[in-house]
Design brief:
single chain, alpha/beta, Rossmann fold, Rna Polymerase Sigma Factor, Chain: A, 2 domains, 6-stranded parallel beta sheet, about 45% helix, globular, binds nicotinamide-adenine-dinucleotide, binds magnesium ion
């Protein structure tokens, strides 16, 4: 346990997949963590009430405003485990309050981009996304100047190995059936289209300051290696563990410390093999599209993310084909004029987000 007593933790999005796993870790480590704030979106009020009764946080509430209030509370760590662009204001509030931000809500960093980075002190954002947690761990193996490239691993999703033509009649049920992780619905569909990996390439660029041409993606179906860093001497350091978010969440809450027994380790007593495949860009164009959006910068990543959220929703409601998700996002991006001004405001980002949602809606309605 810590010599300074337990760390005070705010969990935003406490009823979700990441949020509930974070609370499991708190429950298992009462000497390390103490919950002082809880917020959620209101989709599961019974669970939220149970959590409030169990953890008795100082601040709790539903929705964006409650999340901002909790994020601004003086505490050790704010875990942002909200899904989607609505996580942006809470992210900015946590940073402005000087709190360490354990960031699962990658969307806020990706859409906010420089807006988020300029408010963050070095080390203030600790990634919870498993790939970025892996990279942060691997980066301990050398100096920043020694880094040659980042290598993000991708499960390839449930449709790995299929051609574009073979993806046309994929149903939401099939896409929601992720092989390894149990996650919220948006990120599960995003794993199937590889939009999630596209978002993660942008996230890696922003978190670690590595240019896009030095961030690679490799398909690794077993999801035992969570990402790697290649150093300039030719050495690659990889982080491996059983596929589970518990280790990255625990590191997010305890960084730079590790939480003993946070998750299951590898089992070397049984034979196993780990495969690696190059990404099929034709069947899964989401990653190259994200690179282009990331290179454009400005509000382009926000448009990529927002248009995709609308497409995912339409796909889940049977109104858009699986193979039309990424082309629709691409069409909305092509229509979007990236503002030429240097400094974006929160309003610019949220305006672009709103514009992209309507533009995607129009295209989906026009097609059906
Ligand atoms: P989820 O859908 O299971 O949970 C989302 C949570 O956010 C819920 O508690 C919901 O009530 C809450 N929420 C929604 N709107 C809100 C609002 N306005 N104010 C406060 N809370 C609100 O999602 P998840 O799978 O836990 O993912 C959360 C984030 O973590 C996402 O950004 C996702 O990309 C990222 N992430 C998840 C995983 C995973 O394994 N689940 C892995 C890596 C990254
Ligand atoms: Mg990830």
């Amino acid at each position: 346990s810590s010599p300074h007593g337990p760390r005070s933790i705010v969990v935003l999005g406490s009823t979700g997949s990441i949020g509930t796993q974070a609370l499991d870790l708190v429950r298992a480590n009462p000497d390390r963590f103490r919950v002082v704030g809880l917020t959620a979106g209101g989709g599961n009020p019974e669970l939220f009430e149970q959590q409030v009764a169990e953890f008795r946080p100082v601040v709790h509430g539903l929705g964006e405003d409650a999340s901002c209030e909790a994020a601004g509370l003086a505490c050790d760590v704010v875990l942002n485990a909200i899904t989607g662009a609505v996580g942006l204001r809470p992210t900015l509030t946590a940073l402005d309050a000087g709190n360490t931000l354990a960031l699962a809500n990658k969307e806020s960093l990706i859409i906010g981009g420089p807006l988020v980075l300029e408010r963050a002190k070095p080390g203030q954002i600790v990634p919870v996304d498993s790939e970025h947690s892996a990279i942060a761990q691997c980066l301990r193996g050398g100096s920043p100047a020694e880094v040659r490239r980042l290598v993000l691993t991708a499960s390839g999703g449930p449709f790995r190995g299929r051609t574009r033509a073979e993806l046309a009649d994929v149903t939401p049920e099939q896409a929601l059936d992720h092989p390894n992780f149990s996650m919220g619905p948006v990120i599960t569909i995003n794993s199937a289209t590889l939009v999630n990996k596209g978002l993660e390439v942008i996230e890696a660029h922003l978190l670690f300051g590595v240019p896009f041409d030095r961030i690679d993606v490799v398909v690794h179906p077993q999801q035992m290696i969570h990402s790697m860093v290649e150093f300039h001497d030719g050495s690659t350091i990889a982080q491996a563990s059983w596929p589970s978010m518990l280790i990255p969440i625990a590191l997010g809450l305890a960084w730079p410390d590790r939480v003993p027994d946070a998750g299951p380790g590898c089992d070397w007593s049984k034979a196993s093999s780990w495969d690696f495949f190059p990404l099929d860009d034709e069947a899964f164009p989401a990653v190259s599209l994200a690179r282009r959006a990331g290179e454009s910068g400005g509000t382009a990543p926000a448009v990529y993310n927002a248009a995709n959220e609308v497409c995912v929703d339409a796909f889940r409601r049977g109104r858009l084909a699986f193979t039309d998700i990424v082309p629709t996002v691409a069409a909305v991006l092509a229509e979007h004029a990236v503002p030429s001004k240097q400094r974006l405001s929160v309003e610019d980002v949220l305006d672009a987000d709103g514009w992209a949602r309507s533009a995607a809606d129009r295209r989906i309605e026009g097609a059906s």
